[in-house]
Every structure is written in C-alpha cells, then in structure tokens.
Design brief:
alpha/beta; Aspartate Aminotransferase, domain 2; 4-stranded mixed sheet; 15 strands; about 15% strand
C-alpha cells in the first residue's frame, strides 16, 4: 500500500515490533478493519489472516459472542482496584480455567498478557521454594530458540539470540539446553534424538546442583525455532526428571493453549501435566490483553498463613484480573467448549497438514511440523542437501503480502495458525494462497 506524508512521518515516530522502520517502509501495512478470518488495510485490500493475528485470534476477529460479552461487561464494571478487591467475573474466570486444566492445575491468577504470566510464574516458583524451606532453589533451565516474552525475566529464560543481546547482561540464574531439532541429523531416528535432548535437562540439573534449580520452563511446541514439535516421550522423560529432583515443570502455553493443538491445552495433547501453566494470546481471542498463571492447587498452601507471617505472593499488576478482560476470556472459553473447537482443531489440523505436505512437490520443503491448527513448514534449497534457504523465506514474506496473505515467516520456515472457526474451504483458500506466494518467491530468487 502507498503511504501519505502524515503516515510516513508518524511511522518514523514509533516502531513496529522486531522490524527496522526502513524495512517496514519498503512494504508498509496499516490495517483498519478485521472480521472473521480477514483483515483489510487502509486502502481496502483484503488479507487472509493465516496466523490468527499472531497466534491470538482463536475465534477470528469480531466474534459476536466476544463483542457482546465486552459490551455487557463495560456497562457494569470495567475496572476493580486490585490492591483492595476482586470481582465476581474474575472469580468466574478462575473457576472456569480451573475446570478446564488437567490434574490439580486450578490455582489461577489472571494477568494482562503472556509475558506477565511468565514473569509471575518465575517469581512464584522462587518464592514458593523460599517459603517451603528450600531457599537455594532459584535457577531455571530452558531451551535455546525458545521465546517466553519481552520482560526481563521472560527474556532471560528465552534463547533467541539477537532478540536478547541488545539488553545484556540478563538476570542471573537461567541455563539453556538445545531443542531436539538442533541434534536431529546426528541420530538415526527422531525418537532417539528426543530421548537424548530430554535427558540433557537431567545432566544440567545435576551439574548445576539440584538444590539450586527451581524449574524447567519450555513451550510444548516451540514457535521461534520453527514450530518445534517433540515426541510425547520427550515430555514424559522431562516430567520424571522434575519429579526426581523436586524441580517444577512450567509449560509456556501462550501460543499452544485454548484449543490450538487439538485439546484445550498442549499439556493434554502430549499427555503430561506441568506444575505451572502460563497462558495468554488466545485466551481473549485478541480482543483485549489477557493472560493467566495456573499452578497446582497444593502450591497455594505456601502463600496462605497468618497476617504476621507475610507469606502472600509478593507480586501484582494494575490490570491483573481486570473485569472487562475476564468477561472476554469467559466468552472465549465458553465458545471453545460449547462448539468443541478444540476437537475440531484436531480434525481440521490434520487436513491442513495434509495440504501443506503437498508443497513438497516444489522441492523446497523439508518438513511439516505441529499439532492441530498450529503448523510449521521448513524451507530448504533441495531435498538432498537439506541446506537452509533463507533467501526464499525473505522473498516469501514479500510475496505473501502482495497476494493478500499474512503468515509468520522466518527466513528458513513459516508458520500457519488460522482461527479455530475456519472450515475446510478456508483451509483450501489458505493453502492456495501459500502455494501461489511460494511459487512467486521461488521466481523472485531465481530458483
């Protein structure tokens, strides 16, 4: 789209996330309307939202149930003072989330986004061990290529290189291991690779001293590494390691939660229950900032006592448990449950994966990964050398927008995560746009 002088001037007075302004100005996009599976830019051009906003709009844009819940709540109360009170609608969300999570994960604190939820989980874990007689347990083990948020604690847990280095030094107490995709070509099978990578957590815990390690934090499906999808056994091994060394297992389900992987949570998809689960993004379907930290019920005992004991969780946020956001979250959860959108995501996700597998005929796709309606496609120069093809990814980012398609494109892979309201016809349209854009990108790079 073309920019007028005012828009260009104002764009130089702000920034687009993780984008150089000069690069953005080469192919600017200003979106002023959204409905269902589509966006419209300021010139009226329509775009298929192939990434659900950014793994957010699980019900698409402008879902009537969400809009109605927001309007109804605004007429009643939109803010409750968190230092003095809560609201019934916030308690309703606590109850609802607790009823949908696996095991005893029903100690819930709503926040205003994923980074806040992760930050709360890290602080909660450290304070929990201090108040249960193990004050030396403060370290966290996470993965390279993982991304847990933009705040300092969440960033320290992340392993995303250039997103972190401008802000070093980071908070101490964070150690990394590599995800399975890093070692996959060194093993005969994917299963064997996953066993090795899972056991690395135990090696690190042992070398760091188990009495200093508080938790393992990871995304069940790693986004920034290219929709990294481990085996079920990988998580089972890690769960056993955590139990053996009294280390908390923290799942970052900010992307994978709320029906995306074929179950309400990826913990259920992979059959492993963490000690703490963090969510955000899809909990409000993008209508308002909302997240939640959900812990084992018994962990709450460490934060309950006499007033003089001062064992309350020393943490809070102005918009934590915001009534307006909680009303939206309840509407989203009710719609997923009543329409069985999590089960639908499993069936439709298999259909999407099959269509994406068809892209291999162009000779530049190594692998299609993911679960449910969260899928990633890895790009290579050819199926023999399997060398990365970053030029193709950079071209695809341009051609997708030209063809009216919004994807999450990394130079060596791209991800798709359409809203759970999509149907087979929508998936057909999405993959047709992807293929058209991929062919145009191949032509652009002369391949």
């Amino acid at each position: 789209m073309q920019l007028d002088a005012r828009r260009e001037r104002l764009l130089r007075h702000t920034f687009i996330d993780y984008r150089q302004t000069a690069e953005f100005l080469e192919q600017p996009l200003i979106i002023n309307k959204a409905h269902g599976l589509y966006y419209w830019d300021a010139e009226g051009k329509r775009y298929f939202d192939g990434i659900g906003g950014i793994f957010v709009a699980v019900l698409g844009h402008g879902h009537p149930r969400v809009v109605e819940a927001m309007q109804r709540q605004m007429a009643q109360i939109s803010f409750a003072p968190p230092l003095h009170a809560t609201s019934d609608v916030a308690l309703d969300l606590v109850e609802k989330l607790g009823s949908l999570t696996p095991g005893t994960l029903n100690y819930v604190k709503p926040f205003s986004g994923g980074s806040e939820s992760i930050e709360a989980a890290l602080k909660f874990a450290r304070q929990y061990f201090k108040q249960t007689g193990r004050p030396g347990k403060y370290k966290f083990v996470s993965r390279y290529f993982g991304y847990h948020g933009g705040t300092f604690g969440a960033m320290a847990a992340s392993g995303t290189g250039k997103r972190k280095t401008p802000f070093e030094p980071h908070a101490p107490g964070f150690v990394k291991v590599f995800p399975p995709t890093y070692y996959r070509d060194r093993f005969a099978t994917w299963e064997e690779c996953n066993r090795f990578c899972a056991r690395q957590f135990e090696d690190v815990i042992a070398m760091e001293d188990p009495e200093t390690v508080a938790g393992i934090i990871l995304e069940p499906i790693g986004n920034t590494g290219g929709i990294i999808t481990p085996t079920d056994e990988y998580f089972q091994i890690i769960r056993e390691i955590c139990d053996r060394y009294d280390v908390l297992l923290i799942f970052d389900e900010i992307i994978t939660g709320y029906g995306r992987t074929g179950h309400m949570f990826a913990a259920q998809t992979f059959g492993v229950i963490p000690d703490i689960l963090c969510g955000g993004k899809g909990l409000s379907s993008g209508a308002i900032p909302l997240g939640a930290m959900i812990a084992r019920e018994d962990m709450a005992d460490a934060f309950y006592g006499a007033v003089e004991d001062e064992v309350n969780f020393a943490h809070g946020h102005t918009f934590a448990g915001n009534p307006l956001a909680c009303a939206v979250g309840l509407a989203v959860l009710d719609e997923i449950v009543e329409s069985r959108l999590d089960a639908k995501a499993q069936v439709l996700g298999d259909y999407l994966a099959g269509k994406l597998e068809g892209l291999k005929r162009h000779g530049v796709v190594r692998e299609v990964r993911g679960k449910g309606l969260l899928r990633g496609v890895e790009l290579v120069r050819d199926p023999h050398s399997l060398a990365p093809f970053p030029e193709l990814g950079r071209a695809l980012k341009q051609t997708a927008l030209q063809n009216g398609l919004i994807l999450r494109v990394d130079p060596t892979w791209f991800a798709v995560a359409p809203a759970l309201i999509a149907e087979k016809d929508d998936i057909d349209e999405l993959v047709e746009l992807i293929e058209r854009s991929l062919l145009a990108a191949l032509e652009m790079v002369g391949a």
